[in-house]
From TrEMBL:
PANTHER family noted in UniProt: SULFATE ADENYLYLTRANSFERASE
Identification of the protein by name: Adenylyl-sulfate kinase
Source species of the chain: Mucilaginibacter rubeus
GO molecular function, one term: adenylylsulfate kinase activity
EC class: transferase
APS kinase domain residues: 2-151
GO biological process assignments: sulfate assimilation via adenylyl sulfate reduction; sulfate assimilation, phosphoadenylyl sulfate reduction by phosphoadenylyl-sulfate reductase (thioredoxin)
EC number: 2.7.1.25
Coiled-coil intervals, chain numbering: none
An annotated GO cellular component: cytoplasm
Keyword entries, A-Z: Kinase, Transferase
Length: 187
């Protein structure tokens, strides 16, 4: 299973992915997190935040996730992933991809601003520290129309959000195992 966590920077993708991994550590479900922030720094430092570079980033992350999930690892891809077309491409390319929207109003993200990106995006044009192409501020984020799960981290506390996501993974993992136990064509 590939879990695509999409949502604006600071919405809680990394936090929830890490908590879910911990939460599932006492089960026999192997979980790996592919955090776009980390992979960009370690593997794709030349990619920026244009539409084309974001597509390339997501395609590469999807490829790695496909390999891991092919070995039975529940692979959580934590990336802003703002465009519907590339999300749909991953869903069409790899088996058992689930799309999860981690939502949060920009007003709240401006208050959290753990990386200082939002303040920098709001600087005047031409300011040397200005951040351009920040999704939700000066770059698009297409809201998923029918995600498999929706979590709003402005409303839902971290512990409850973790339970929602862990429960979703457990349910789907178990359903998949039951399907694989059933002989093809008999049911
Ligand atoms: N425009 C811009 N300028 C500078 N830095 C930025 C910008 N947009 C995103 N970020 C930071 O990059 C982190 C990874 O982005 P993503 O790979 O998830 O983006 S995307 O999926 O390719 O759209 C992303 O990580 P998260 O904060 O974890 O979402 C941000 O820290
Ligand atoms: N309900 C919540 N779920 C997840 N994170 C939350 C929640 N409420 C507040 N936060 C905080 O918001 C921040 C989210 O940051 P992070 O997980 O790095 O986001 P992202 O990976 O989407 O950029 C963290 O500081 C986290 O503690």
């Amino acid at each position: 299973m590939i879990i695509l966590l999409c949502g604006l920077s600071g919405s809680g993708k990394t936090t929830l992915a890490q908590h879910v991994k911990m939460r599932l550590s006492d089960t026999d479900i192997p979980v790996e997190i592919i955090d776009a922030d980390v992979y960009r720094q370690k593997l794709f430092p030349n990619l920026g935040y244009t539409r084309e570079d974001r597509f390339e980033n997501i395609r590469r992350l999807g490829f790695i996730a496909g390999k891991l999930s092919g070995h039975g690892v529940v692979t959580i891809v934590s990336a802003i992933n703002p465009y519907d077309v590339i999300r749909r491409e991953l869903i069409a390319t790899y088996p058992d991809v689930k799309l999860i929207h981690i939502d949060c109003p920009v007003k709240t993200l401006l208050q959290r601003d753990t990386k200082g990106l939002y303040k920098r995006a709001l600087l005047p044009e031409g300011h040397p520290d200005k951040v351009t192409n920040l999704s939700g501020v000066n770059d698009p984020f297409q809201i998923p129309s029918s995600p498999d799960l929706y979590i709003n981290t402005h409303i839902t506390r971290q512990t409850e959000a973790t339970e929602m996501l862990a429960g979703f993974i457990l349910d789907n993992y178990q359903q998949e195992q039951i399907k694989q136990l059933q002989p093809a064509g008999r049911y």
